[in-house]
Every structure is written in C-alpha cells, then in structure tokens.
C-alpha cells in the first residue's frame, strides 16, 4: 500500500474505503491512546477509547467531508477524543464515586498540542523514509538526528562534505514539506 | 476443549517449538529415538487449504533444488495423512541454556541474545550467499529470507522454511513485509533485497523496522563497507545482478583477515610477525 498523506486519508474515509480506515487507525491510534491517558482513561480501556473515537468519526463518515475552512483536523480530533473519554469516565463513575480531580482544560490542551507535534514529527519521518533513497535518509539521520560530524559522515559514504550537505539540505526540505502536509 | 498434539505416523511429538501462518513446528522423536523437527499443516482448515497446497508445491521444488547443500536445510521426508500435511527435517541446535528446555538456534535468536564477532558476521553472510546462490542456480528463489528462517544445525548455517519458494522468474509480492521490496519483484531481486536487510540486522544488531537508520553509538567506520552492500541490495534492484557480485563485495571487506588466514595455513605467520 502506498503511503497516503493525512488529508487524503480523511477524504477517503467518507468513501468507506477499508484501506483508508486501516490507515486512519494506524496513523491516529497512538495519538488517541496518548491523549486518552491524559484524560484519565486507564491502560485497560485505551483500546475501547480508540474504538469509540473511530466509531464517532465513522458515524459521521457516510457523509463525512473534511472541510478545512471549518477548522483544523487536529482540533476536530481533539474534540472527539476528549468527548469520548468523558463519556467513558462518566459511565464508569456512575457506578463508583468519582475522585476529586480538578479538570484543567488548558493543561490538557497543552498536552495535546505537544502530542500532536510529536505525532507529526514521527509520521513525517516515517514517510520521509519511504520517499527518499535509503542513503539520503541515512545522511539526514546521522547529521540532523544523531548530530554526527559532517566529516565523519562524508568519510563513511566516501563523499565530499559539500555533497553530504547538499543531500542533507534537500532531504530536510522534503521533510518540511511532508510535515506541512501532515499538520492540518 | 483442549486438543492434544497432532497424530503423525512413526513420530512421537514432544513439544511445539514454533508456529507459522499455516502450520506449526514440533520437536518429535522417530521410531529409532532420533530427534527430528516436524512441520505440520492442518488440511482440515479450509481457510488455509490453498496456501497449504502452494507450500506443498514450493517444498517439492525446494527439495529437488536443495540436493544436500550444506547451507540449505535438508527435508528428510514429506508425508500426508487424512488430516495433515507434514515434512520432517533435522532440528536446529538448542539455544536454550538448560538442556530441559528447547529454543531453536536461529539467526534471529543470535542477533537478539548472543555476541558475535565481525568474522562471524562474515561467515554468516558467506554461508547465506552460498545457500541462496545454489537455489538461484537451480532457477529457484526462496522469497522468505529472514533471520527467523535461518537455522544453525551443528553450528552450520542452514536456510530453512522454503514454503514460499518459487521460480526465479516469477514476479510477486510474497514474503515477510520487512524483508521484501515494496511492490512486486522478481524472485532473484526479492532475495537480494532480503539479504541486504539481513546484513543490515547483522552489522547494526538493530531492528529491521529501523532500516536504514544506523543506531547511535555505533562506530560507523567499522561498518561502512557492510552498509554499502546493504544499501545496494535494498536499492532499486539494479546494483547486483547475481549473488556472485554480492560475494565479490563481501570478499573485499575481509581482505586483511583472509591474508592472515593464508599465512597461518602456510606456516608463514610467525615469519611475518603477525
């Protein structure tokens, strides 16, 4: 399966394509789990939360249309995660006494923003790996992620330092473009 | 209801030691008390019937091609009962520390648990190339090369699990995801690609999912040549046209060590003060 960018994944959900659903799950399940934890969902119920969020998106997906003019997808997803997590917590505390935990919405928003940023970074790197030559990815990874010395990297690939810089810059530009597409 | 082990004529099944998508592997004792490994596929499962038939054809092709090659797992016997299709091989060495337990000695196991030297890396790669080259010369591709399918028997590397073997010219996308090229590829190219990934696992001791990342903390000077071979194997499929070409690159890596070996064999080792 080719790697699909986020906006096209969202567009295809409306067509009920199972491939798009699998991709959606693959892309966002880790983020849903992470933010679900912030909202107070325990580890055992995180899978249920993922299912509930998926169902919510799915529910509106028969006529689902992502309209960027109405808002960012990241905010829409945050709203759904928070709402489904609250549903689950309400259902649980109907049975037992709720603990006294002050809900600080702003704090949760900050956490979500950081998690979204990490999600975009991780997924962009994954996509970059499939889009560029393995050698170019290695050069980028060694210089930008591992902070290795450019001379050491140039020696490793038997290239000039200028070529290594040029490949790194091109790869970095590509990564930036991927990240811009994913951050919507 | 709990089921007992499958019933296979002339074998007493001792312990299940592996499970694949269409079958399980059992340690078994034959009528003479010799320990064997038996791979068993359940014909009663309709979901797997076409895959079992395909595997059965693949095993037949592989048996004809393998011909007791030292780096290819010998299939000693293929049998069929009403319920099961099975084939019998020698078991892999026991990698477990206790004699009471059994854990197959595979390359995956060694990558995870056992330290190995640069010389051993070379030996593993050369043995792997020998086995694959023999298959290719017989117009057969393995198509599922990965560390889990590489066993050690009496400490000798053997390529196992030929269930996806097919004609070298067949274009398909079969194989394990991390070890096969994206999209469809010919058998030879698919094997080259898998060899590249196995080499990557060997010199980085890393997880194949991280390819092509070089783990932090590794002294990259010592792995440059291996990395070059892995990148060529996993590239667009044009860098290598035969196993002999890969072997040629591997030979270049070990030059000095080989020279020392020759000197040692010819008794000139002390003379050169090496």
CATH architecture of the largest domain in chain B: Orthogonal Bundle
Q: For this entry, what is the oligomeric state of its chains?
A: heterodimer
- Supply the number of helical segments of chain B: 7
The helix/strand series of chain B, from N terminus to C terminus, equals EEEHEEHHEEEEEEHHHH
CATH superfamily of the largest domain in chain B: Transferase(Phosphotransferase) domain 1
Radius of gyration of chain A over all CA atoms, rounded: 20 Å
Radius of gyration of chain B: 20 Å
What is the average of the pLDDT values of chain B? Answer: 87
Uncertain stretches of 5 or more adjacent residues of chain A: 1-5
**Helical stretch tally of chain A:** 8
Protein described:
The complex is a heterodimer of chains A (184) and B (274). With 184 residues, chain A is mainly alpha-helical. Chain A folds into two domains: 1-121, no CATH class; 132-184. Chain A is built from eight helices and no strands. The longest helix of chain A has 27 residues, at 105-131. The two termini of chain A are 23 Å apart. Chain B has two domains: 11-89, 2-Layer Sandwich (Phosphorylase Kinase, domain 1); 107-259, Orthogonal Bundle (Transferase(Phosphotransferase), domain 1). Chain B contains seven helices and eleven strands. Chain B is globular, with a radius of gyration of 20 Å. The N and C termini of chain B lie far apart (67 Å).
Structural descriptors:
heterodimer, A: 184 residues, mainly alpha, B: Phosphorylase Kinase, domain 1, Transferase(Phosphotransferase), domain 1, 5-stranded antiparallel beta sheet, two-stranded antiparallel ribbon
Brief write-up:
The complex is a heterodimer of chains A (184) and B (274). Chain A is mainly α. Chain A is 72% helix and 0% strand.
Topology at a glance:
The complex is a heterodimer of chains A (184) and B (274).
Chain A: H1 6-13, H2 18-38, H3 46-59, H4 73-93, H5 105-131, H6 134-145, H7 150-157, H8 161-182
Chain B: E1 11-19, E2 23-30, E3 35-42, H1 49-66, E4 75-80, E5 84-89, H2 107-113, H3 118-137, E6 140-141, E7 150-153, E8 156-159, E9 166-167, E10 171-172, E11 185-186, H4 187-204, H5 224-233, H6 243-253, H7 255-265
Antiparallel strand pairs in B: 1-2, 2-3, 3-5, 4-5, 6-9, 7-8, 10-11
Helix pairs in contact in B: 3-4, 3-6, 4-5, 5-6
